[in-house]
Amino acid sequence: MPLKDWDIQINYGIKTGCNDAFIIDSIKRNEILDNCTTEEERQKTAEIIRPILRGRDIKRYSYEFADQYIISTFPSKQYNIDDYQSIKSYLLSFGIEKLEQTGKKYVINGETVKARKKTNNKWFETQDSISYLDEFSKPKIIWIELSDESKFALCDDLVPLNTVFFLTGNHLNHILGLLNSKLIHWYFTTCLGTSSGVGTNRWLKYTIEQLPLVCHTDEDLSQLVAARLSDKTNVSICESKIDSLICKMYGLTQEECAYVIDNY
Description:
11 helices
């Protein structure tokens, strides 16, 4: 059954419109928190500075947290920036002309400054409205848009950035094993994949949704995927077992299995 017909939802990561301002490391995070004037402000501020996941951080079955955070002033949350004075001061240090979402150009001290693209959002808010905000807190399958191989991983509460797609729903271990398998990689690159023009595939939402995945859940597959996620020492053996099982689930002959596993 095509993935689009499963009980899942696929979304795109966050677009801030100005990563220089909204993406920070732990040093800047701590500095912003230390500049809060009350414990209440500090707690509220800490809640909206959330750890992020970039495309370059995603590996096959895993990811690496790179000590990066987002100031998640999402428009759908309708924050009052005056309740977050430390964040307000920090963002204003970039210049409100650069952060406002008007698409206008200004000349400041002889330099041309371009505001973010025109939206209905406020200057301190991210560019995206993020109506699917609750999905960020759910377990999810994540992947990078441009990659020469399948790189799908499981993630809990990190917020994906704009080069990352993420999938929420049921049977995530089952789906993850299929998406990372050599058989699905063969099918994607042969039948569906679109090239970036520079030797990598574009793992876009509309192509991923077309993948014909075996829709009956298999406990053996889910258990093998769970083992792959937890055991970092027998990676090749575990993935080989996953690939062999998936080939059998699709009814491939021994010759067909050998071709896919040896070449992809």
